[in-house]
Amino acid sequence: MRFSQFSSAVLASCLSHASVASSKATAPKCSIDVDVAIIGGGSGGINAAIQLKDAGAKVVVIEKQSQIGGHAETYVNPETKIPANIGVVLFQGTDVVKKYFARLGVATVGTNPAATPQESKSYDFSLGIPIPAQNASAAAASQQIIAAAIQAYSQNVLSKYPWVDQGYFVPEPVPKELTLPFGQFAQQYNFSALLPVISQFNWYPGNISTIPALYGIKSLGPGLVSSIAGEFLASASGDTRSLYRAAATELGDSVLLDSSILHVQREQKKGYAKTSGVTVVVKQPNQAPKTIRARKLLIAIPPTLENVGDFDLSDSERKLLSKFSALGYLAGVADIPGLDVSLQNVGALTPFNTPVIPGSNGFYSSGSPNQFLLGVAFDNTDYTIADAEAIVRKELATLAAVGAVPADAAKTVTFPYISNHAPYNVRVSAKEIAHGFYGKLLALEGSRNTYWTGAAFAGHNSGAIWTWNEGTVVPALKKDLGL
Ligand SMILES: Cc1cc2nc3c(=O)[nH]c(=O)nc-3n(C[C@H](O)[C@H](O)[C@H](O)COP(=O)(O)OP(=O)(O)OC[C@H]3O[C@@H](n4cnc5c(N)ncnc54)[C@H](O)[C@@H]3O)c2cc1C
Ligand SMILES: *[C@@H]1O[C@H](CO)[C@@H](O)[C@H](O)[C@H]1NC(C)=O
Ligand SMILES: *[C@@H]1O[C@H](CO)[C@@H](O)[C@H](O)[C@H]1NC(C)=O
Ligand SMILES: *[C@@H]1O[C@H](CO)[C@@H](O)[C@H](O)[C@H]1NC(C)=O
């Protein structure tokens, strides 16, 4: 309460200077003093902002897009008004997740696509091979094999690495097996039957046979295992953005949208002794630049050099973050006239039958006629939206040749909504993991008045990101701020 009044007053004064400042370089500088400046208003940044606000901290969230929520995007079909979640849909059903939705007053429903999958037909989208559905006895046998694999995995793997949902608390010395190719690791622990499941649930986790075992395990922590056996949570409205609308209301004008960062300075500056720690200069369209003076900085954007390379990184920060590379993921809605069934992409010849990459995971009914959700994955970030659309058209031509989609689908398809989610799965090599990368990464927390959150620190799983905030980042920040 106190803060929202404070922030309104400060921001109002910034706004009133804007028109003057744009014409006169000598206009009064607009500045904001806060406890924590948060860069990135996505899953990690917004959750931390709410927790910090509740702890009595003054926060400001700096978001480059015109809405908060990061990968939680929704397309609403203009005719049917049915919302389709393009990015984030399901949350693991943990207490941390339940508490956060309850805190924001957003109703949830339990749901389990593992128990009741959407009806679909399977094809290899790159080869045009139909994959026949299993008969009931074969399906029951597969279910048994998967159940046994889950049991083996829980008993023999998760019990050894109980920290996977908490963060990358990789022990030192680094267990060698965490750097093995995941396919080999799964074979040793008798859970190979789970690999296609992991790939489907985490689309796209990388090549499931070859990613370091650490990332494979991170893609199936205790929270997901118990949700697969029990239930996931989804927003009861059917629109994941309900959560972010509630958060936006709660945070009010302490969120700065459409922001670009001009400058980040984390050294103590003369004259700012009381508040300083960090200075961030932010530009919003048609406004004078704002100078944010914060005691602490929370970086909640993917920490690649492309994103943070212009900040005042130390040599050791720069060296560490330069080790990251990422995958690509494009999500959207395809309108395919004449198609009325969901199609799943299954690799006929790949290990564990995962789809050929680059490629789609499937075309899944969005609830509106002829409209399908799609996710095109890439093994790098070096592609354009046009490249992804070309891949979908090629898949549709291949599928048309075997009668799976209308003959002209590759020509008639349109993309009412499409969005690039790169960089996705920001990770390092097995060699870097072995050399203690995660120990060094976690040592960044709190150093130079800076904290870090988001998928690179907690995995691509909102529940795990909020657990990382609640268990590690927020307690450390509160302690540092004396709250
Ligand atoms: C398509 C997709 C579907 C997913 N589905 C699920 C799901 O169903 N369930 C689940 O639990 N997890 C899901 N995830 C994984 C995970 O929940 C999300 O990836 C989550 O959004 C990651 O949170 P984050 O805070 O790291 O990043 P983000 O949520 O992406 O937040 C980063 C924010 O920072 C902003 N930003 C970036 N650069 C700057 C900058 N320079 N200045 C200011 N702001 C900047 C971005 O615009 C964004 O809003 C999904 C991920 C993707 C990509
Ligand atoms: C079911 O499929 C399996 C393997 O695909 C086959 O061996 C079996 O004969 C089939 N059973 C029936 C009842 O059709
Ligand atoms: C995996 O299964 C094999 C054969 O059943 C068994 O010998 C081995 O001990 C199992 N490995 C583990 C880690 O349980
Ligand atoms: C994953 O890597 C293995 C080994 O390099 C390769 O055989 C396989 O085809 C790859 N899988 C996919 C889906 O590309």
TrEMBL record:
Is this entry keyworded Signal? yes
Q: Does Signal show up as a keyword for this record? A: yes
Alphabetized InterPro entries for the sequence: FAD/NAD-bd_sf, Zeta_carotene_desat/Oxidored
**Keywords recorded for this protein, A-Z:** Signal
Signal peptide limits: 1-21
Superkingdom in the source lineage: Eukaryota
Coiled-coil boundaries: none
Q: What is this protein called?
A: Amine oxidase domain-containing protein
Organism encoding this protein? Neonectria punicea
